[in-house]
Amino acid sequence: MTDTAPRTTRHSGLQTDLYQLTMAQGYWKLGRADEEAVFHLGFRKHPFAKRSGHDGSGGFALACGLEQAVEFVEALGFDASQRAYLATLTGNDGQPLFDPGFLDWLGALTPTVDLDAMAEGTACFAHEPLLRVRGPLVQCQLLETGLLTILNFQTLIATKAARIVAAAEGDPVLEFGLRRAQGLDGGLSASRAAYVGGCLGTSNVAAAERFGIPVRGTHAHAWVMAFPSEVEAFEAYASALPNNCVFLVDTYDTLRGVDRAIAVGKQLRARGHEMGGIRLDSGDLAALSIGARERLDAAGFPDAKVVASNDLDEYRVAALKQAGARIDVWGVGTRLATAYDQPALGGVYKLSALRPDARAPWRRMVKLSSTPIKTSTPGILQVRRMRDASGQARLDLVYDVEFGSVELADEPVAARTIDPTSEAPLSLPRASEVEVEDLLQPVLRQGARAGAWADGAPALAQTRARASCEIAALPERVRRCDAPDTYPVALEPRLAALKAELIASHGANE
Fold first, then answer.
1. pLDDT digits (tens, 9 = 90+) for 201-244
2. DSSP structural state of residue 484
3. DSSP code at position 215
4. Can you identify the CATH homologous superfamily of domain 159-337?
5. Which UniProt keywords apply (predicted)?
6. What is the CATH number of domain 18-158+343-509?
7. Domain coordinates in residue numbering, the chain
8. Pick from 199, 192, 177, 170: which is nearest to 335 by CA?
């Protein structure tokens, strides 16, 4: 088990939107606080669609942030100081917004929800649930904002990292984004998610210490500028830290800087140390990296790395590779840690089933919209992934756990896509063609860790390895960055029929 909760984080019930609390009081006053509810968390469009030149129907995402989400659920509660603050809030008439009895009830609140989720590092797709929360209505409602905050951001950054790592084609990618991140807490989460997505290390020392991520870095331009000359700066750094010398060479004249780094590298070698490499942070990175590589090799430093930074992302990395750049290590900062071209995933958390108590039948519900993509899926959902004999993912089937999954046969079974904006026909594969796995696995039962989580959260390195395997198991046409194909996600036929029936009944009642 890893200790991963940021020390600066103070989880509390106040980490929510006000309307969650006003709704909670409404349910409490109506005697409905403990009705059993089911909510699902997912997203409607794949991230980074606009830059890729498609409508968001293709591509994939990497589920990330579950460990912090579990800690958030476990910490749900309202201490005396938090309740005292809520007591100061007033309504439109100037009177207290919250009833003292409700605040006392919040003070006794202990999380008792069930949580089922995709493991971190799992490839996931639009309209299918990444997480299912089941339990008392008010508890499920109070968890919405925090769960979305955690999972939206880390899933987004892990996906961005995976795309950049893919563009690097096996070269190491380092995450350098802390100084441009959305606050210190955002930087910590970004470093963690980037590591899950495939980055080799981070410059963020707090994240490295907290999560066990390898940490990398040497010096900045300020170090060079603090000395009378560039060569003196390199010599001083080599004297102070001879085992950590990757020289930043573009403060003045880049290729002259490379020559000076080589001269100091020879001095290091004479003292029994090796220069790690040089870093480029501006200019024509393709041409400069080629020039740097030629100089390093000619001087007898074939193992010295050429590290590049400066506003990199998957598109620029791919373009530099295409241009023949001789870059060995990619330092990616702003455009990774902030998901620069898409700053939010747009995940949603929707109520899909409700009943007064455990003896009553479930009432399944659908959320309708004049914007079809916002139409939700009713029920108590599970995601079944189907893989062929080689392990490649073929299709995901979303079904209601009480209905059960359709039994595969020797002939393909007709199904409907889960995408409410598409009428594309789908066929479930033959039973002999696939192996199946249910992706939403128990994490909490009655608020206590369960299943594989009973002994603690998976190690982050294990999660990172899972992500790598999951991406490799996707069809190449789905995982590519530009104009990816749509991975098929189907609705189990009985669930599809129920959804259509609910939509029709709501339309008839309007």
1. 999 999 999 999 999 999 999 999 999 999 999 999 999 999 99
2. P
3. B
4. Aldolase class I (3.20.20.70)
5. Glycosyltransferase, Ligase, Phosphoprotein, Pyridine nucleotide biosynthesis, Transferase
6. 3.20.140.10
7. 18-158+343-509, 159-337
8. 177
